[in-house]
Queue: 2 jobs
Job 1
Amino acid sequence: MIPLRDRLEELARSSVLLVASDYDGTLAPIVPDPARAAPHRESLVALRQLADLPQTHVAIISGRALCDLSNLTGAPEEVHLVGSHGSEFDPDFALQLSPQSVELRRRLEEELEQIARQSDGLAIERKPASVAFHFRNADSEAAQKAVDAVMRGPAAYEGVYTKHGKKVVELGVVSTDKGSALDVIRQRVGATAAIFIGDDVTDEDAFRTLRGPDLGIKIGDGESAATYQVESVEAAAHLLAGLAELRAAWLAGSHAVPIQELSMLTDQRTIAMVTPDADICWMCAARIDSPPIFADLVGGPGAGYFTVRPASGDAPTGQRYDDQSFVLVTKWKSMKVTDYLDASDGRPDQRAGRVDLIRVVEGKGRALVAFAPRLDFGRTPTRLEPRDGGVEVEGSLDPIILRAPGVSWHIEEEGRHHTAFAELDLDKGPIVLEMRYGTGSLRPAVLPEIERRRQSIRLFADWAKRLHIPELHAQAVRRSALVLRGLCHGPSGAIAAAATTSLPEAIGSVRNWDYRFCWPRDASMSATALVKLGSAREGLALLDWLLSVVDTCTSADRLAPIYTVTGAGSAPRVRSATSPATPDRVRSASATRRRCRSSSTCSGPSSSWSPNSPAMALLCRASTGVSSARWPRL
């Protein structure tokens, strides 16, 4: 069994986490007088810390009446309180009972009170939809006699629902349980994973609803549907405190892969980012400035990911590009994954609309795959449907499918979204996973995979060989040039400032700037660098793009600092639905212009145009030159 600490670390990395707990025997010790069952201070502090964290929800689901539970816990506003074994979500729950239920509850109260009077140590607890019969403080003989009377009498009435707990029998007039309550809260908050901690027989209903990455923990001994057990209320308090620390650290970015360790895939229309262990953590489609399909890089797993790794759990042994290209190979002891965006058959110059992400898995043993696309930063529920030969993403504006012949997929719900899981048998030969954006066809491609890979390698490798690379740090300069070439949008000639979004203006600032777009100032600097290395094509293409943008302006001095790569309009304003820690704003061009005009380092539209001067000078000296048709417009 996986150690409990490891499971807590895994749970802490859930995109939307629900932490739920029973009260008596879990947050508070069992005491002779239930009215004096004060919660363990460390537990309550930990729950409040968890509830204050982004994308983290906390619930206490108890058999107690809601008003009683509220009084004992101090009614923390940030914590969901659910009483009466899941039936009381609202303070006015009793007003919703039918007259028949109210009359039945009154009869139960009268008869249970009569039984309680027969011996010392017996007591009843009145709740809005039930009556609890406590025999904790009675001697064993009297307790057994009283319980028998309860079960033969009021518990046998039609419409009465009986629950047995620790030294208590509860008779209710509505059917409910903690498992149903946990499911209700899970749906309300859109949790992708849940943890439930309990100690009683009634908590088993909640344990049995847990699934997938969920975690159940029982306090004390005895058979249970919970996977793990701890000894005491104090142990549960330490566990919750540890979970709060792990969750806070994860949300603060302790899990983030350093940017210098990420690898880039490109087809010169869009870009994907890959972690050292071959997770696709960022990809937009169909263009680099389109909404993302995978955005784990900035929003955590809930924003989308695509993982392939050995079932053994081994760490990767290395990662490299194939030749001077953007075909990436990640290796483990037993297997390797080759990733690339298909740039064959002239795609880089074709209008963006069809994108193919290809992942070739080969080796020995078994590999695990998790396919979790999330539409538009996860703001739109993403549903998956298995198809013959692959998986279809439902509800997207453009068709998206994952072609994987011979692979059997298991679809699981994670909050509002679906995730597809598969186990690959690599001993049967290489397996090709091909995510296609812009088509719903699962038919084989016209070109075989190996030829598509060869053309995708040659596109960049042949270009890199023609560069004039200085001797000093030649390898780093060549790879940097390749990155700039990969940021060039082939169909339009624009150059994106960066592969991903975003950087805040200041740490913690709400003003975040998206660099997946074309900032004319930055693009001109990139073009200048490439011209200096002997490649004038990118500079000329950018110049044509800039001139087409100027043609749409009322005057040349109205050039904005940021545009889409098509130049059709200014960059849109976007708000992410992922973690609040995620950079979540793309400023409009007008807002950007105001910022530039008030900045000491950027003096408005002229700063977007002036860096083109050295680029144009270099182009004029290059053999291609600037055509006479361009000069009048310049």
Job 2
Amino acid sequence: MAGRAVRLAYPHRREALALAEELREARSGGYWVAVGADAGVRRAVLALLRRELEGTDVLAVRLSADEPGPWRTLGAKALRAKKAASLVMVVELPVVATGEDEAPGRHPVELLRRLNVGREIAPGRGWRVVLWTTLGRVPDLTEWMPDIWAYRRSVAWMPGSADFVDVARRGAVATNATTRYRVQLREAEGRLKWASGATRLGALLDAAQAAAELGLMPRTQRYLREAEALVQQEPSIGHEPLHRTLSMLLYFHPKRQSAEFREIIERYAADPIWQSADVTSAVVRRHRMEADSRMGRYAAVAMSDPSALLNLAGDCLDRGRLQAARVMESLAQVSSASGVQRDHAALTDLAFMDYHAGLIAQESGETFDALCRLHGAVWYFAQMQAEAMTSIVQRLAVNLYQAIGLRDEAASLRAQAKASGRGTDSRSIPDDKLLPLDRMSRFLDRAERAFAHHDLPAAGAALSVARDAWAAGDADFRSLYGLGRIRRLEARLLVTRGDVSSALRTLQGALASVEAEGLIHERFRLLVAIAALPPAADIDLTRYDAARDALSIADRTRYVEEEIEALLRLSAAARSLGRREEARTHADRAAEIRRQVGRRPPRALEHRP
């Protein structure tokens, strides 16, 4: 609704207040950039600026796409101002399509050029100009307004879902793949009414393939089971279609987190018929490879298959091997762009490329880019009608919105998320049947629960099993996430025994590993664990530095809860160093942020990681 009043979310309000303060303190004219596509946010920011800059004329100017003389328009607006000497102009740049060959929503190039040519006018007349643009159009400003961009005072980042969805949709490739899969499914099901023998097998596999691409998983499984039964009844059809069918069945295996699944993979991988590139790569992309030598052994086969490379990227991400995940994702993009992939898998590959790129961006601290890529993945999965994956990715985006303080955006997206994905539930699998990665996670959870109940013997025993499970993996692909959790729990156990120095060394050792890999959130957790160690004269300065580094990470990622946690730890560390005024400042700032985002007052800090 056009006239609806919008309450600024805390992150946007903080950016707007900082912008108002800079405009108030500016002694001369210049340029500021504000980023955000939502019209309601723009109106709310304009109202805030007029309220905060009392005694200053704040003019709203909307330039048209075909504006022949933007500076004449701005000059005419300035003449009508009451106090031209203290003028602030909030200029909305138009967003339109400039041609059939250009991306929709691009800023008119000529308008940006004309503004850049007259760049001396605003500073010369003392005008303070705020240029409103959208997140996806920031590169246009850097390209077509290079001088204004270079001399900007600051950028106020206030994007929301409108920005992220816009970037994602412009990056999405239009495709008629969904229609093609529906036609393929309808034709295959039509052949099943009369076909027999090899013809029926081909129809079953075509129907299973199309149903899988459309996200119709129960129907996919039914057709695959029928295909398997048909091949068993008529061996003359041939073994290769059977193995291809089994490769797809393995993807839906109900116990793929168990040791039995590993044995199935080993058995089929040893069969000579699996040595062809097509069949072996099918195993690679469908098997959750438990970080061992198979990842390297099958890598050469996978290089020609984007789906296999993306599967490997996902496995690396699960273990915190960010650099390897980046390499695999880049290779998948190259293979996809070169047209090596099969046509029917193109849409799936695009969806998982955006999905994995979003996870990589999130772990790298590039929160805005992560949201853009996740929304892109949602768009692709929605085109495939893969409701389970759509819901999974939407929930990841919801968590990100919640983390950066955009609660309304999170609530809106959460309402769109439908049925949750039915992932494999490993809780029913016995401990000794789990693969090392899953066994490690299970026992780390048990150790944390034991600590919560102050059962130190049980915590130590569970931690020992988790440590052994972590060591059982391939040394090149052991989980760095697991390492971080293990070291934090080990430090916690050492603190209960009074050995704080050893706890610090343990955490610092893990910190070096995650820093080398670029795991920014895992680094934050370890820094907070160091800052949370009990006060001691020989480590108080180390605790203070760790809390300050953690705060810098929170500023980069824009995670509100991480900022609060870092401020509280920094306050406690400053108090231990005798810096009471600084400690009070940090604590008050944390309390104010909690109040702004509607959180409960902070609890008393516990001096433990």
